[in-house]
Write a structure and sequence with these properties.
By secondary structure, the protein is an alpha/beta fold. It has eleven helices and 14 strands. Helix 4 packs antiparallel against helix 5. The two termini are about 30 Å apart.
Length: about 300
């Protein structure tokens, strides 16, 4: 298990993360979502032991990560930008990794390279951003980590390679109980593979839940009322977004249930239809609330 306990991280006068608490079970995939500057990369680097915290701590199976080589050897980290020795050939980087990580598997690397297709005789400086991402993914998968931390891992990858990568990640979770923490702007990809998600906004957690709970509790409703109910709708609790098109209201709620249905009928709802919602819409709507969209938090 990974435990992020009361973590705060400052850079000078700037607070990048504040009061972050997350528990990630072994053998699950946890998604980190947020706008640029929300603190996603900082959080992932703290999880990987690159940064220390100002307050709080990060534990892996009860042991602190920072300045702990024993724990760090269990972690693979793929950044959104991956810089290696530019004049090294890929095969030289493979040898370098095999000398550092005792569990590094050259066989695994060769298997992954049948999918990612890199020329081992190319130098790092000859690789595009997408190729460097492929290399970093293969290297970190080949160390056979217990935890894999991924920051925008599909950046620069084409559609076919993206699908192959997601399939590999899911297989590794099932076969080895690999724990994955992944950040991506491609929220639809996270929706397909994540067990739980955390939404960050300006360094704070604004929403945290498993995917099943999101689909159970966060709903987008198409509602037709009898008469003018504009004022009454805005007084309803647990409505996080309101849009009106013609005579139809589209309401987003984060606490769907019998109480809300009863409240809608009480103010004149003639038709209430659940039209579903995507994880990307959840992110957009919850971000709007916290920015002060006119609906109280």
């Amino acid at each position: 298990m990974i435990e992020v306990l009361d973590v705060r991280k400052d850079f000078g006068d700037f607070t990048a993360l504040d009061d972050i608490n997350i528990r990630i079970k072994k053998g699950t995939i946890h998604g980190i979502i947020g706008e640029n500057g929300a603190g996603k990369t900082t959080l992932l680097q703290i999880l990987a032991g690159i940064y220390d915290t100002k307050e709080g701590k990060v534990l892996v199976e009860g042991e602190e990560v920072y300045d702990n080589n024993k724990v760090k050897h269990k972690i693979g980290y793929v950044g959104d930008r991956n810089q290696y020795f530019k004049d090294y050939k890929i095969r030289e980087i493979v040898e370098f990794y095999s000398g550092i990580y005792e569990n590094f598997s050259k066989t695994d690397f060769q298997i992954y390279n049948k999918i990612f297709r890199l020329n081992l005789d190319k130098k790092i400086k000859q690789l595009s951003k997408g190729m460097q991402m492929r290399l970093s993914l293969m290297l970190n998968l080949s160390i056979r980590p217990e935890i894999l931390i991924l920051d925008e891992p599909t950046s620069g990858l084409d559609a076919i390679v993206k699908k192959d990568l997601l399939d590999i990640l899911i297989d590794q979770v099932h076969e080895r109980e690999l724990t994955i923490v992944i950040s991506s702007h491609h929220i639809s990809e996270l929706e397909k593979i994540c067990d739980e998600i955390t939404i960050l906004n300006k360094g704070k957690i604004k929403y945290q839940s498993n995917i099943d709970e999101i689909k159970e509790n966060v709903k987008k409703l198409q509602v037709v009322f009898e008469g003018d109910v504009e004022k009454e709708i805005h007084q309803l609790e647990n409505i996080i977004d309101i849009e009106k098109i013609g005579s139809v209201y589209y309401l987003v709620t984060d606490n769907y249930g019998e109480v809300l249905i009863a409240d809608l009928k009480e103010i004149g709802a003639q038709l209430i239809e659940n039209i579903g919602i995507t994880l990307e819409e959840v992110f957009v709507y919850t971000s709007k609330i916290k920015e002060g969209s006119g609906i109280d938090e």
